Amino acid sequence: TSTLEVSPSAIEFEASANNTQNITITASGAWTATTEGSGFTISPASGTGNATIVATATAATGATGKIIVALTETALTKEIAVSQKTSGGEPTVIFSEDFNTINGKGGNDGKWNGTDASGDKLETFENWSLTEGYQGSKSIKLGAGSKQGSAQTPELTNLAGDAILTFRAGAWDSGSEQTELLLEIEGGSLDQTAVTLEKGKFNDYTVNISGGMATTKITFKGKQAKNSRFFLDDVVVKSK
Known about the structure:
Layout: E1 4-7, E2 10-13, E3 20-27, E4 30-38, E5 40-43, E6 46-48, E7 51-57, E8 64-71, E9 77-84, E10 93-97, E11 129-131, E12 133-135, E13 140-142, E14 150-152, E15 161-171, E16 180-186, E17 189-190, E18 194-196, E19 203-212, E20 217-222, E21 230-239
Parallel strand pairs: 2-9
Antiparallel strand pairs: 1-3, 3-7, 4-6, 4-8, 5-7, 8-9, 10-21, 11-14, 12-13, 13-21, 14-20, 15-19, 15-21, 16-18, 16-20, 17-19
């Protein structure tokens, strides 16, 4: 009696190149395996009796199709569906700063203008480069009434390739305040070079990084010298 069984009947690659999946062949004789689709290879493509086929993804995305196993000189065939995850699971945190060690005024305490939101000058913080930096409430305030402020991250030493930048920011709450926050990068590119802030409130922002590297730095900068004050918090860079 001719027999042919395969297990499993479907495989799903992880979202990484060279990820492998094994397929167990139970056969009573010689068999061949062929593929339809793209983004993967198989080995071996033929054999006799029981065996294991190793399927390998050729890239981090795009593997799709099927593997067809046929028992030689019979009409018996089995198919294995092939797919690939679009995400490699939980993203890796490359850089994170919540500024929780800064006990100043403004931002997280609900104060967004006046002396209640004006903390002491912050010349340095960790390995950040600050221009017109001030101590906020578990955050940093950048800029003064007539001076442009900026904050540049340290080198993102664990960054390699594409990533996602998230942060919280809010504008100083006065009638003449600018709400455009400029974003700059050294080493790579950003899909947004500016975001619009809301006065008197933190909002969450997400920006895509392309072509990042271990020396990449990101700068947050007020639009102009006059009335471009803002608070910055929870800066995180994660792998895609």
